[in-house]
Amino acid sequence: MANVGPAYGMSREVQSKIQKKYDSELEPILVAWIVAQCGAEVGRPEEEGRQGFQAWLKNGMVLSKLVNSLHAEGSKPLKINPTPPTTVFKQMEQVAQFLKASENYGVAKTDIFQTVDLFEGKDLAAVQRTLTALGSIAVTKMDGLYHGDPSWFMKKAQENKRDFSDQKLKEGKNIIGLQMGSNKGASQAGSTGYGRPRQIIS
Fold first, then answer.
1. What does the pLDDT read at residue 29?
2. 88 pLDDT exceeds 50?
3. Which of 46, 98, 93, 96 is nearest to 76 (CA)?
4. Which of 114, 178, 184, 199 has the most beta carbons within 10 angstroms of its beta carbon?
5. In angstroms, rounded to a whole number, what is the distance separating the alpha carbons of residues 42 and 61?
6. For residue range 140-172, what is the model confidence (pLDDT) as tens digits?
7. What are the helix and strand counts (H, E) for the chain?
């Protein structure tokens, strides 16, 4: 894979805006969750900030262990080799497998980052967005597989499905909704017939 050189002009301005979206306050929460979820063996970023966060996740091993930890034994979606991948292709493939498993877990496509966003550090805010969405779904499922502080992530809104009997549905058809207005007090008293001139008394 070719090295990406420095950006100039418009590209540099766009890249600068993307980098500013990275949330340095969210980073320690995501790191704490991943460690709580996967165990201390995944380690921590060697330095705080975007570059340390990227280097920690870049080869896809930590991410793969994270998504596996959200599944029960016997139903883990990814096979993980004990030795981390060393070639660029294998590392990117590992990240791509994590993204696919996250989507299958319930993360929306709009919340999934692109492999290059992480691997080349193009948009680490998108990586944070994917991890936050993954955490939110894990908290919402309440299946006992989430580890960490539940307040770290917002619960997703859940469907409140209601079943009405046929009798209730029939009764509902006879009710005039408030948005349709009201016919109470309606009267034609004082109205004139069609075609008759209005009487004006001086």
1. 96
2. yes
3. 98
4. 114
5. 9
6. 998 999 999 999 998 876 555 556 677 767 776
7. 8, 0
